[in-house]
Amino acid sequence: PAVTLRADYRPPEWLVPETALDFDLDPAATRVRTTLSVTRNGSHAEPLRLDGAGQEPLAVKVDGVLVNDWRIEGEQLVVPLAGDAHSVETEVVIAPDRNTQLMGLYASGGNLCTQCEAEGFRRITFFPDRPDVLSRYRVRMTADSARFPILLANGDPVAQGDAGEGRHWAEWNDPFPKPSYLFALVAGDLAVNRGSFTTRSGREVQLGIWVRASDLPRTDHALHALKLSMAWDERVYGREYDLDVFNIVAVDDFNFGAMENKGLNIFNSRYILADPDTATDYDYDGIAAVVAHEYFHNWSGNRITCRDWFQLSLKEGFTVYRDQGFSADQGSPAVKRIEDVRSLRAAQFPEDAGPLAHPVRPDAYQEISNFYTATIYNKGAELIRMMATILGPQAFRAATDLYFDRFDGTAATCEDFVACMEESSGRDLGQFRLWYGQAGTPRVSASVDHAPGGGRATLRLAQRVPATPGQPDKQPMVLPLKLRLFGAETGRPLTDERLVLLDQPAETVTFEAITERPILSINRGFSAPVVIESDRTAADLAFLSAHDDDPFARYEAMQQLMLDTLVAGAIEGAADHDAVVAAIFNTLENPELDYAFMAEAVLLPSESFIGDQLAVVDPEAVHRARETLRRAIGQGLADSWRQLYAVLQQGPYAYTPDAKGKRRLRGVALGYIAASGDADTGRLAFRQFEAADNMTDRQAALTTLANGDYAEREAALDIFYNRYADNSLVLDKWFQTQALSSRADTAALVEQLAQHPDFSLANPNRARSLIGAFGVNQRAFHTAGGAGYRFLADQLIALDTLNPQTAAKLLPPLGRWRRFDEQRAALMRAELERIVAVPSLSKDMFEQASKSLE
Ligand code: HT7
Ligand code: ZN
Question: What range(s) does the Peptidase M1 alanyl aminopeptidase Ig-like fold domain occupy (predicted)?
């Protein structure tokens, strides 16, 4: 398969200042007439090369005259051009209703919509489909007036009218030059929730959230989040919106979360639709974060885009960093940081340690869609965060101002961004750039020496970046580590917080006037995305979990304490649980902590994360160790959980930080009550399930019931199913809850659920809710015998024929074979080999599966 190399980047041979698109929309046969004004870029004799995918040119005109000297090379349309500026017209017919890949123009729920990032535009029309060709688009759509009364595209609406014979037309004009991946149109029968926002310079922007009419009551949260995002970007980054309209359309069939098309965002409906009865607090938070993320792309992505796809993290890492800041400002920054680090560890750390590891700025790809990864997005955001930490808030803001000013209207690189950070602050980020090129999660060892009675403490730090595919040797990185010392006897801070930039393989840091044994608080706020290996004792960690003034460090100490206990339990079959139980008790009793933080702090690490700490993952041993500790916490603190469960009961539903925190902690309390094994658990959970006036409480109860062997389990699942049978987003939860169950028979149940009449691989949300959830359920997926591996491979092979992108994203659990015992590893490899051998496998799947075998 063809490999695209970063080093091969060349500027485009032809530019396209203007693009006019004329769509005659029809689900079965849509005619697309495209007129490009093209100009030669530099002096060369190359023909114009336009990317296509699957379509045939029905006609090609140059300067209005039909020509026939064009040719097809691979999937490109090659048109010889004599002069330096021409008009080139093409005509194709495409079939949106047969587009199961959901890339290009496709049908969803009777409507038509587009998805062009990364290379979907070429499935609509012939075009130089690369992000550094910026063009002004004018779009005309003609469609059946009854089936498609609403016609939307990028930019501003300019005209509309009747086309006769029951059809109508609309024209949209986007004044901002943009790459083809930001093109969008929507045609459908949609209702709108309208709002408006006045920018700080006085532009009144018409906002619209477009959904099917029955979903309209579930759009207020998204609209509110959009207004908050617009205000936040003005206040925090000085960025204003730049068009008179901003539309969002929700569709049910979508490969990703959402798409930031200029002025016309298209969303997976799960990131728009919410009401208390159908969406959890987690869903509400996710909606606000994704609405913000897509809106923020208007500057970090659209006004300044990427020169090539190797620079993807330029827009994605920065925009994730921006949406994380937004969400932190809406609620608790500490809890948000904990959530972000938890998802980094769940998705990115394993990616960085496995066969698909790649740098934040990759060097090569076969299929770019495979690079929309946790590394590009979440690790990319950590890189921006580290630069912000190193520069400090004012210098960082000055640097982003410089970046936005200097590169507005252009296609830029990660290097351009770092250079702005450097130029604006005067700091040398030469070595920091290694973060963009070296894959792998650095490991930092930290130990403190202090002679009893002495005044000096010496902190010894050493770093090591593990080898990753294609990168056997690594250079030391710059690691910004925030740290502080606390006194073991008095409990007082012995130092201020310090920012240490570890840029050598090993360094020592000394602290004077340290009069008692110091306890190290390190990587506070998770200032660097690294693994810390320290010799802190259980007592030290328990101390920090109770007294550290940095909330993240406090959480982290508790996690480490739990992890040490769980790893000992998994390896030795037994562990002392007392320190964890006592630390949790102290946390629950601390009046200074809010409920949301408490809930995060007392949750045990996931089975996968515990597995990540072992040389060879033993899924059953991990499960046993975690369940044993859960039971010890449940039983040891039974009174606390019961009391909390009662006290945290609330009146009518409210979506406020306090109410959310209470719901979260109450759900955690229910989980620990269940873990204690008390006989009334099923009844208690079922009562909550029935009495709940919101999905958060109902889902928490259902999860508890689904994980156990309760008499009420089946009834709850049936009631839930019947109540929400016509709501596909909630049915996704029904599938997902069962696929994530910790029960021993989950693998068999998931196989049955794949035969359920409501299960379909054609809808990515549904596929992810069952197949994706099963893949990350360590115990179920790795059930001895390999049935889970076979099932996943079968599903992926089937899904690949419909939607290769979604299939390829669900493959990584099979690629983790090196982490398991020989028997499991052989079974996993066999399934990967079976996948690779499938004739006509997509390049998406081939790349993921073949790399996973290497
Ligand atoms: N920038 C968007 C990426 C995206 C995407 C990528 C591949 C296939 C389908 C897709 N839909 C959206 C989303 C974002 O990061 O905001
Ligand atoms: Zn994004």
Answer: 440-534
Ligand 1 neighbour 181 (Cβ under 6 A): no
CATH of the domain at 798: 1.25.50.10
Residue type at 683 in one-letter notation: R
Give the closest residue to 176 by CA, choosing from 223, 114, 244.
244
Domain count, the chain: 6
Residues 274 and 222 sit within 8 Å (Cβ to Cβ)? yes
| Cis peptide preceding 328, ω within 30 of 0 | no
Backbone angles phi, psi at 603, to 5 degrees: -75, 135
Same domain? 736 vs 819: yes
- Give 78's strand partners: 49, 71
Ligand 1 binding pocket includes 316 (Cβ within 6 Å)? yes
CA-proximal residue: ligand 1, atom 2 (nearest): 259
pLDDT for 150: 99
- In percent, the amount of the chain with pLDDT more than 70 equals 100
Both 365 and 470 in a single domain?
no
31 shares a domain with 60: yes
Single pTM value for the model: 0.99
Which CATH number fits the domain that encloses residue 523?
2.60.40.1840
* Cβ 648 vs Cβ 662: under 8 Å: yes
Residue with tokens 């792309």: 297
Is the pLDDT assigned to residue 454 strictly greater than 90? Answer: no
Query: What is the rounded CA–CA span in Å between residue 566 and residue 623?
Result: 10
Give the Cα separation of 264 and 183 in Å (integer): 9
Residue ending a domain, among 573, 604, 630, is: 630
Domain assignment present for 690 = yes
Closest CA to 211 of 185, 186, 178, 230: 186
Q: Is the beta carbon of 113 within 6 A of some atom in ligand 1?
A: no
Decide: 225 and 237 in contact? Cβ < 8 Å: no
Average pLDDT over residues 635-649: 98
pLDDT of 325 > 90? The answer is yes
* Pair 246, 95: CB distance under 8 Å: no
Q: Nearest residue CA, atom 1 of ligand 1?
A: 259
CATH of the domain at 80: 2.60.40.1730
CA of 500: how far to CAs of 101, 497, 503, 547, 646, in Å?
48, 10, 9, 22, 45
Residue ranges making up the domain that contains 682:
637-712
Active-site residues, by number, are 294
Do 425 and 448 belong to one domain? no
What is the β-pairing status of strands 71-73 and 76-79? antiparallel
Residue 265 CA: which ligand is closest? 1
> How much is the average pLDDT of 522-539?
98
Rounded Cα distance between 708 and 702, Å, is 10
Q: What is the pLDDT of residue 62?
A: 99
- Is 286 among the domain residues? no
The answer to whether the CB of 369 is under 6 A from ligand 1 is yes
Are residues 658 and 580 both part of a single domain? no
Mean pLDDT, range 786-802, rounded to an integer: 98
Question: Are residue 24 and residue 143 in the same domain, yes or no?
Answer: yes
- d(CA 291, CA 846) in angstroms, rounded, equals 33
Query: Rounded distance, CA 421 to CA 415, Å?
Result: 10
Residues 706 and 777 placed together within one structural domain of the fold? no
**Does the pLDDT value for residue 192 go beyond 90?**
yes
